[in-house]
Each structure stands twice: as structure tokens, then as C-alpha cells.
Amino acid sequence: MAKKSAIERNDKRQRMAKRYAAKRETLKAIARDQERPIEERFEAQLKLSELPRNSAPTRYRNRCGITGRPRGFYRKLRMSRIALRDFASQGLVPGMVKSSW
Asked: Do 27 and 1 reside in the same domain of the chain?
């Protein structure tokens, strides 16, 4: 089980990314627009850099919803490989059978 503080910090990053997503996208669009004057584009870039770092979606880490494990994560199932194996062994995942030889 992952540390509670790491899980909470990651959840905070996810909430901040959602909160600032629209503002960040508009500033990025202004900064990339070649038709706008260079001063306006530069100002948009400065405003973008003034936003909190944790509001960037790349700072968010995918974690297992059950254990909080950050590695071995399956996006489609939203869980780690270890949690998936435990669920499969208990017969909770339809169609999945633990192999043994």
C-alpha cells in the first residue's frame, strides 16, 4: 500500500489540473498562434509560466485505485498488475484465469 501522503498529493495534482485546464489551454493557444503579435504571445507565455506547477497535467501520476501503487499500472482497468492478479485469483475478473504450469 502506498503512503497516504503520496496518494493525496497526487489527487491534489489531478484536481488542480482539472481546475486550470481551460485557462491553460487558452494561454497555450494564444502562445502558439503565429498570427498574433509577438508581444501578446510572449505575455501569454509569461502568464502560463505563472500558473502553479501542479496544475500541469503531466505532473499527475497514474496510480492503482485499490493499492495506490504507481508502477505496473493498467490504464484500461485503472489498477496495478498485482491488484489485478489478486482479483483474478479470487475469480472477480470475468474471463481471466490464473495460469500455472
From this structure: yes
